[in-house]
């Protein structure tokens, strides 16, 4: 049999060797073919060879033998071939350093190549050659690339910084200079990479972040996902050094002015003297506000990064916003679930209220892996309270019956924790655990014994029957830990079971030599305690067990036996401890505290590797404690060039200055009214007289607006239909016009943007008259370009006086945050009772749906209000042909595309109904389409001019709804709003 087995194994080994040799031979033959192709004179063959080689690398095959043949083509003029060669060199430059060094001059020349991808690839290869001799060359290349016009090359320079630093740490100071320069970069492509370089090279240089803090906060939503993770982690550490704690005990939030019903003024004054109100730094609030939208990110790491930021930085009442997003991540892969559940387990210990509404999400499924089950069990135990314990215990009853023995044992431990934490269910849990002692599974029985032992320590006087029951089951329990626990209970409470304990000792004396060490130790302890309490019955048994222990193979047991003998058996050589034997062995012991294994994990930053391992990992940077006094906030101020004075129409009853010219004369006003009432015919008139009148009006507007610092021609383009052509002509043909400053604005507003055919506007309440002491305010989005600044959203506010007295000096007060760009309306000097006035504002929401908070003030009062834009109001419609739409949509695929399926009612599938619903949600332009079942809409964001494309394709009773845009967060919100609109219909 052995001979046959040997020959079979020998044959199998020979076959494996032959197969490996054949594969190697095949690869070498293939490599020869590829070498010939690379050395040919035909570019097409070389290109095909490089594609195959890169394919081999992608599959994990080794292609290092081809390095000499590949490196010969590094200077090729074919761009595609050159790119593939650089991809190969990045992979093997470190292994084949000598050959790579021969091509350095080529890489240096490539750093000046017109193609940005070649420049970036050359820098990437150069930084992959790990040889000290070329450090000066690499340093120079990084410096030059950091000033490159292409953000892609600057991004590659940031990556190269880390590689050079790991190769030569002595270059740190020079590299910090480059990092400081790149931190000022305004490109979202560069931001994440340079912060990563900062974290690798000089994470302690917080001073480099001060001037760039606000910029990083504002860019965050547009940075690529992994860059967002790095930036959020860095800003979390930064915030903990620059702002004061929002968790101070006794600190009263600034807005909390409510008094209790019976609270006296004197008590209020005392509290105010003791508790100073906490005022959050605007920069602290800026970080929290700009990271909140990222909770909707599709990237798990981003969501987790925002969650840990809120956990470590936000006021406690605001942290709940992360709960739903974290629970959403539990639908992902088990690897993701594991990390997310670890973080939730830590959070749920301190703030169980965060996750109580989502308790069902932590119920264990049969398909879950053991480590996932255990973590869910941990969280359920943390969430247990008097109100939900009955539900949780019913769940636990099911889990105990699980075939997964490790999980069943963990459930019993969880039941024990619930029993100690919630006194109302202690007896119920204990009785349930006693029933488990009859279970067939020894693992369940063993764990039950251990947990019962811990529970009995809390109230031993009430449960002597349970101890007796466990003694009866002792012979059937084989797990050493369980046997040891029963023996410990017998010894600890031997006086409560005086008849049973000696009998258990008698049985142990018979099997002593065959027991495990942990059981032997507890047997010796039991013998000693019985000797002290019941010497008459157990003296001989104790001597016998001590003699057995004296010659045991384990030195632990021999040492314990010698110590116990000297302690309890008096003789001439006994030490002074003999008289204290009872106090030592029978001393009352505190009940053990059953705690979560995640209790102390919050000492590590959530989401970090150290938190996951519960041990400090290499490179971990600890979060500092909050400073008692905030450092100077002015270090974050960035010098801003003051804009020219903006023109705004006067509203309310403000007095007009005599020096100001009228916008139109009374005659012209009358003419306008007449022309408006005469219908569209007057507008379509193109006589010389109308153009002449238009010209005069244009020049008057232009002179007025020039004096105010506002492009008058822009106003005319928006508000004077007759003269639009004339205005465009003036912009095109008059070289003395301010084309440089206004051309982009005109291109966007006049040639690309269109006005949608949209019905009445939705009005939202801004201030209720009861809250505003008679002043009420409503707002609406007129969906017109904002005159004050192209990046602002136009907002109309209707102010009404519902009181019986005049309101004076109505104006906008402080804004929050202070960095919010808002164009206020002019002060309304006086508003009569029952009177109303409409005023215009401009707000730069920075393509975010975050609310703009400000104060609406009168002469006597101030009211905090906020304007919350729907995502569709942050867009302006765009005209586009079907061909251009398809072309632009093709550029916005992958991560830039968000889609969903919508159920459509038959009555609402007409073009008119669909357009009505889409336009009700978003300010978009209709794109003409040749297919009747496809509807397309185009727009661009007001602030950053990012293209937003919406398409809807009807398929029987459903429709495929797709949004394409670089603004991924905005796309998901817009898609949600559109789905809701169609669902309501």
From TrEMBL:
A Pfam family: AP3B1_C
Family matches, as Gene3D superfamilies: Leucine-rich Repeat Variant
InterPro entries per record: AP3_beta, AP3B1/2_C, AP3B_C, AP_beta, ARM-like, ARM-type_fold, B-adaptin_app_sub_C, Clathrin/coatomer_adapt-like_N
Region (Disordered): 249-274, 658-689
UniProt-listed SMART domains: AP3B1_C (SM01355), B2-adapt-app_C (SM01020)
Compositional bias segments (type: Basic and acidic residues): 258-273
Superkingdom of this protein's organism: Eukaryota
Main localization of the protein described in the UniProt heading: membrane
Keywords annotated in UniProt: Cytoplasmic vesicle, Golgi apparatus, Membrane, Phosphoprotein, Protein transport, Transport
GO terms for biological process, alphabetical: intracellular protein transport; vesicle-mediated transport
Cellular location(s): Cytoplasmic vesicle, Clathrin-coated vesicle membrane; Golgi apparatus
Positions of the AP-3 complex subunit beta C-terminal domain: 710-850
Bilayer topology annotation: Peripheral membrane protein
Domain called Beta-adaptin appendage C-terminal subdomain: residue spans: 874-983
Function: Subunit of non-clathrin- and clathrin-associated adaptor protein complex 3 (AP-3) that plays a role in protein sorting in the late-Golgi/trans-Golgi network (TGN) and/or endosomes. The AP complexes mediate both the recruitment of clathrin to membranes and the recognition of sorting signals within the cytosolic tails of transmembrane cargo molecules. AP-3 appears to be involved in the sorting of a subset of transmembrane proteins targeted to lysosomes and lysosome-related organelles.
Protein name: AP-3 complex subunit beta
Species of origin: Takifugu rubripes (Japanese pufferfish)
């Amino acid at each position: 049999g052995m001979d046959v087995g040997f020959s079979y194994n020998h044959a199998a080994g020979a076959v494996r060797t032959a197969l490996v040799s054949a594969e190697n031979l095949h690869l070498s033959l293939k490599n020869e073919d590829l070498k010939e192709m690379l050395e040919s004179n035909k570019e097409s063959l070389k290109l095909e060879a490089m594609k195959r080689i890169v394919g081999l690398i992608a599959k994990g095959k080794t292609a290092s033998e081809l390095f000499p043949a590949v490196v010969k083509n590094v200077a090729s003029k074919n761009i595609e071939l050159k790119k593939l060669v650089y991809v190969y060199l990045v992979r093997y430059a470190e292994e084949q350093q000598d050959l790579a060094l021969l091509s350095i001059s080529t890489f240096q020349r490539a750093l000046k190549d017109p193609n940005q991808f070649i420049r970036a690839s050359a820098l990437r290869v150069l930084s992959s050659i790990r040889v000290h001799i070329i450090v000066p060359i690499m340093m120079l290349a990084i410096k030059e690339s950091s000033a490159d016009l292409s953000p892609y090359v600057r991004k590659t320079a940031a990556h190269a910084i880390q590689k050079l630093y790991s190769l030569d740490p002595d270059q740190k100071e020079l590299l910090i200079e480059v990092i400081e320069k790149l931190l000022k970069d305004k490109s979202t492509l560069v931001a994440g990479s340079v912060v990563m370089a900062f974290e690798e090279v000089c994470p302690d240089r917080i001073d480099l972040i001060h001037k760039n803090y606000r910029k990083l906060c504002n860019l965050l939503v547009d940075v690529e996902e992994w860059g967002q993770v790095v930036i959020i982690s860095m800003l979390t550490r930064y915030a903990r050094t620059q702002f004061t704690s929002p968790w101070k005990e006794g600190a009263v939030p600034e807005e909390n002015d409510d008094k209790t019903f019976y609270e006296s003024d004197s008590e209020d004054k005392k509290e105010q003297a003791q508790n100073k109100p906490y005022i959050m730094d605007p920069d602290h609030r800026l970080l929290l506000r700009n990271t909140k939208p990222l909770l909707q990110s599709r990237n798990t790491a981003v969501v987790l990064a925002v969650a840990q930021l809120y956990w470590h930085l936000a006021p406690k009442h605001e942290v709940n916003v992360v709960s739903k997003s974290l629970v959403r991540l539990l639908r992902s892969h088990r690897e993701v679930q594991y990390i997310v559940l670890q973080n939730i387990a830590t959070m749920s210990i301190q703030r169980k209220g965060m996750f109580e509404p989502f308790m069902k999400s932590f119920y264990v499924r049969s398909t879950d892996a053991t480590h996932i089950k255990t973590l869910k069990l941990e969280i359920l135990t943390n969430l247990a309270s008097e109100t939900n314990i009955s539900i949780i215990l019913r769940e636990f009853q099911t889990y105990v019956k699980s075939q997964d023995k490790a999980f069943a044992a963990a459930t019993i431990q969880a039941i024990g924790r619930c029993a100690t934490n919630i006194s109302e269910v202690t007896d119920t849990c204990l009785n349930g655990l006693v029933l488990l002692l009859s279970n067939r599974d020894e693992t369940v029985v063993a764990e039950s014994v251990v947990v019962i032992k811990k529970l009995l320590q809390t109230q031993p006087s009430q449960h002597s029957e349970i101890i007796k029951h466990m003694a009866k089951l002792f012979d059937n329990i084989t797990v050493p830990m369980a046997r040891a626990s029963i023996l410990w209970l017998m010894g600890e409470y031997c006086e409560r079971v005086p008849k049973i304990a000696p009998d258990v000792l008698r049985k142990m004396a018979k099997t002593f030599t065959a027991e495990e060490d942990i059981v032997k130790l507890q047997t010796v302890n039991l013998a000693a305690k019985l000797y002290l309490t019941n010497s008459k019955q157990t003296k001989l048994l104790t001597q016998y067990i001590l003699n057995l222990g004296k010659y045991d193979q384990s030195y632990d047991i021999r040492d314990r036996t010698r110590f116990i003998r000297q302690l309890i058996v008096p003789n001439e050589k006994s030490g002074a401890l003999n008289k204290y034997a009872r106090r030592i062995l029978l001393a009352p012991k505190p009940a053990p505290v059953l705690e979560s294994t995640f209790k102390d994990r919050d000492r590590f930053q959530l989401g970090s590797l150290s938190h996951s391992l519960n041990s400090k990992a290499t490179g971990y940077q600890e979060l500092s404690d909050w400073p008692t006094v905030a450092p100077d906030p002015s270090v974050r101020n960035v010098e801003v060039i003051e804009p020219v004075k903006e023109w705004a129409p006067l509203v309310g009853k403000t007095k007009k200055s005599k020096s100001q010219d009228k916008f139109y004369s009374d005659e012209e006003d009358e003419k306008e009214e007449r022309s408006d009432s005469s219908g569209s015919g007057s507008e379509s008139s193109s006589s010389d007289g109308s153009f002449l009148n238009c010209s005069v009006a244009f020049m008057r507007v232009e002179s007025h607006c020039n004096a105010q610092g506002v492009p008058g021609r822009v106003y005319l383009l928006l508000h004077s239909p007759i003269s639009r052509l004339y205005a465009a002509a003036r912009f095109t043909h008059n070289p003395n016009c301010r084309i440089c400053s206004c051309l982009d604005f005109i291109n966007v507003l006049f040639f690309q943007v269109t006005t949608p055919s949209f019905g009445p506007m939705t009005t939202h309440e801004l201030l209720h008259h009861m809250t505003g002491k008679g002043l009420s305010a409503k707002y609406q989005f007129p969906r017109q370009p904002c005159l004050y600044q192209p990046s602002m959203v136009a907002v109309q506010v209707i102010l009404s006086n519902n009181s019986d007295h005049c309101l004076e000096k109505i104006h906008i007060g402080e804004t929050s945050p202070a960095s919010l760009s808002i164009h206020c309306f002019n002060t309304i000097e006086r508003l009569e009772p029952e009177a109303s006035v409409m005023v215009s504002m401009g707000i730069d929401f920075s393509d975010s749906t975050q609310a703009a908070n400000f104060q609406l003030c009168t002469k006597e009062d101030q009211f905090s209000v906020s304007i919350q834009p729907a995502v569709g109001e942050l867009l302006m419609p765009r005209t586009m042909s079907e061909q251009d739409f398809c072309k632009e949509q093709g550029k916005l695929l992958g991560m830039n595309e968000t889609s969903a399926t919508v159920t459509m009612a038959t009555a609402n599938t007409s073009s008119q109904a669909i357009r009505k619903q889409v336009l009700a949600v978003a300010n978009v332009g209709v794109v003409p389409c040749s297919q009747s079942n496809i509807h397309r809409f185009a727009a661009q964001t007001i602030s950053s001019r990012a293209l937003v494309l919406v398409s809807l394709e009807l398929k029987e009773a459903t429709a495929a709804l797709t949004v394409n845009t670089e603004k991924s967060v905005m796309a998901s919100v817009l898609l949600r709003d559109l789905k809701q609109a169609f669902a309501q219909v």
